[in-house]
Amino acid sequence: VLEGRGVPVTNTITLAMTVNGRPVSASGGDHFTLLRWLRDVLGVLDPKYGCGEGACGACTVLVDGDAVSSCLVLAAQAEGADIRTASGLTEADGRLNALQQSFLDHGAAQCGFCTPGMLMAATELLQPPGDLDRETIRAALHGNLCRCTGYDAIVSAIEAVARGGR
Amino acid sequence: MSSSEIRTSKLEELRVVHQSLPRQDAEEKIAGSTRYAGDFSLPGMLHARLVRSPLPSARIVRRDASPARSVPGVVAVLFGEDVPNNDIWVDVPGQTTEVAALKASMQVLATERVRFHGEPIALVVAENEDCLAEACQEVDVEFEDLPGVFDPGRALEAGAPRVHDGSNLLAEWNIDQGDIDAAFARADVVVEGDYETQLVDHAYLEPECGVAWLDDTGVINIRVATQVIEHYRDVARILGVPESQVRVIGPYVGGGFGGKKDMTVEPYLGVAVARTRRPVRMAWTRAESLTARAKRHRMHMRYRSAASADGTLLAHDVDITTDAGAYAYLSALVLLYAAVHASGPYRTEALRLRSRTVYTNNTPASAMRGFGGMQVVFGYESQMDRLAQALGMKPEEIRKRNALSRGDELPVGQRIDTEVLLAETIDAVIERAGPRPAPSGPGTAAGRGMASNLQSYGRLVWLNDAASAWLGFELDGSLTVRCGVPDVGGGQVASLGQIASEILGTDPGLVTVHFGDSARTPLAGTTTATRQLLMSGNAVHDAAVAVREGIIRAVADETGQDPESLSISAEGVVGIDATVPIKEALAICRRRDVPIEALATFHGPKGGEVGRELRSDRIFPDFTFGTHLADVEVDLDTGQVRILRYVASHDVGRAINPQSVEGQIAGGAVQGLGFALLEEVVLQDGVNTTGGFFQYLIPTATDVPDIETVILESGEGMGPFGARGIGEPPIGPPAAAIASAIEDAVGARPTVLPFTPERVLACIREGARSTTP
User: Fold this and answer.
1) How far apart are CA B55 and CA B40, in angstroms?
2) Which of B12, B306, B564, B759 is deepest in the core (most CB within 10 A)?
């Protein structure tokens, strides 16, 4: 993906970062966005390209705990950072974490393409944990577009976790 | 919590169907492990991109690939001449000339003439994304501007620039039912209205993309985000190879809504692989998706409607023009849907309808959720409100008085042959909504509106629709289903597993459904037209019943019991005295040469092809009915509309998975609210100026309220267990319901979509004038 036969990407850079708890050092184009770095260099495929300009939130990941649109950040800016993506929420034995389970229970994923970004926006919102009303949850999700669910089920899934239940 | 409820009648005993089981696909999507079309790569994979026209109407004077070919890493720069069969032909049904059915074509890559902004001209293939981007800049194309036609209202005027060689008239449909003049002559009230809907994008989160490769048997494999894996036939035609040598694999799709019904990247991937013989990936940018992919039609409707003093709807006289854009795509069929649905879910004594779709140099329009049947809701429901006002009736009264029920005939001639709970959906939303809204303070006004609709489910009957599914027990008692259904996120695959599990008693966790592969799963047709539950659902149902009957018969013969006394459950074949475990029952079948698998094909209802003068006793399999209610608050200074409360109710026949049904209703309603208040593809003389999500606005979580749903189950649909389709129907009512609520609040009705603050302010001024003495 990164380089085809005999045509190396010019101006490469080597970056070290921690992705979903795993330290990874790799080389790629110095102009690559964090999204492209995660997907094309590291093979972390759950952050999605939806618009490339920070309008849809499908590429949302946590960088040192903050939710960012990874299509708007250069990979080089994330050097040494702790990156978390939706696939990293899943427990080591493959079980869904409480937020993911709540998404499943509430039918919060239809086509699922916005889901990894939604999960990370919600993960940020739930740090620290606390009761949240639906309006607050909706406001926190305004940068994450969903075209399938109408948002209700997503809001309910997050609300349930915020209340400490499902 | 948002609330939803389900009201059931005629419920047979069900164990798995009718349960809100978590969907297997949802679990893997939430875990972040689903491999969508864009999440797949192969060693040595190339990247492809299209060079598109920056102009809406121009002659191509010169094309030069040499500067692009000299960019290091470029493998191929291809023009239309490099495509074996560069013309894609589509049938335009019903518009029969004396020699043959009308056909329309568009080129895979334009060679001499471009007709819309974004039309593909060159296909560039390169080793990586960076040199690909550079090379695309270097493809040298010289244009000569040609006059274009951008206003569909003027496309048929004498002297209008011609988009194609012939007239700009692409297709027309007429309906003449009853004595229209007599109906108007004896009417007590007549109301008129003029309504416009806008160009709309599907705006799914996953842009069009795919990866294709040549396998070791010489078959071209295309793994693509699509609603139609059967486009392998079209790709084969373009490449000039046998259809058996192209395979399309459809992984879970990141949203479709009709936008992935027509081909997107498939022909280009096919051409690139055939040419380079290496794996190729093509992913459209959001700007390409918003600019160049076919959209939902702009529609201009004029209605004149008549009713008698008691509220009986007598007649509609309707004129519809839609903007097909630059190429035919599915415009003729979309218009046909508009015509058939144009009088809504009401008994209508007389209908005169004239409709046409015209070519322009605008972005082509094609399939989108509701497919012509949704735009007309804005027309007929606005008219119903106006009739009610003229008669001093309540909106719900006039609707219930005229509501279609079993035995009534649509103006096109089709009889409604199932029970429909339309009046019940009206009662349900009113009951749920409770007291009317009050304004929150000075400078605001509150209002309530409702709208009902009908929307067909299943394809036009003369398309001879069919879907196949294979189902078989494994030797350990688990169950495998194979069905070529594409899953666009509505639970298309999961519901098949639920149906199989219900009939065969297998634990849902032991059912695996393989889907969406033209080489390995029996073909099930398109995931469009709200047809998959009807079609593939019935195919799986029938296959499961065939397997169940075989197993029960074998066990009955083996044990000397009456087959009528046996049933099948998770434990096995259950008799009066004993249960034969499923593994043992399967062994009995093998000894007795009774198959433990079955292939079933479900055929949709039949009917003859229609002509331009529409008349048919069956044109669609059946319809889904529903009603939505909206409470809004309008800011009288800014024209901003805030939705306070939204309730939606549909008769879904039977909810196979109630949570999936709620998801379809809530999601469809919110898409409809975007249509009502926010969304518009803006073209300035054919040039798209809404090529990003900061320009093309879809609803965010803060733009919409919770959608409350009331699911009614008549048990009368044509799908498995009496289900009706629910994919498209919920997108119909929102715009009309919001228009009605705005009028209720400010005293004048918006008639042009979307209802922007500017347009709402105009209504506020008009309302103030009409109430000032």
Assistant:
1) 34
2) B306
DSSP B643-695: EEEEEEEEE-SS-SSHHHHHHHHHHHHHHHHHHHHT----EETTEE---STTT
Contact between chains at B667 and A150 (C-beta distance less than 8 A): yes
- The pLDDT tens digits of the residues spanning B301-327 come to 999 999 999 999 999 999 999 999 999
* Helices and strands per DSSP (H, E), number in chain A: 5, 5
State whether A150 and B707 contact (CB < 8 Å). Answer: yes
Element (H, E) at B123: strand B120-126
Low-confidence ranges of chain B (pLDDT < 70): 1-2, 10-11, 96-101, 772-773
Which residues are A82's β-sheet partners? Answer: A18
Closest alpha carbon within chain A to B708: A152
CA pair distance A142, B365, nearest whole angstrom: 29
The Cα–Cα gap between B503 and B139 comes to 58
For residue B424, which of B410, B445, B404, B394 has the smallest C-alpha distance? B404
**CB nearest B205 (choices: A114, A150, A153):** A114
Nearest to A157 by CA among B262, B224, A141, B596: A141
Closest CA relative to residue A44, chosen from B39, B283, B45: B39
Q: Are B123 and B271 in contact (CB under 8 A)?
A: yes
Query: What CA–CA distance (Å, rounded) separates A55 from A58?
Result: 9
Predicted TM-score (pTM) of this structure: 0.97
**Concatenated DSSP letters for B476-510?**
TS-EEEEE-----SSSHHHHHHHHHHHHH---GGG
Which residues touch B586 (CB under 8 Å, ≥6 apart)? B473, B475, B477, B551, B596
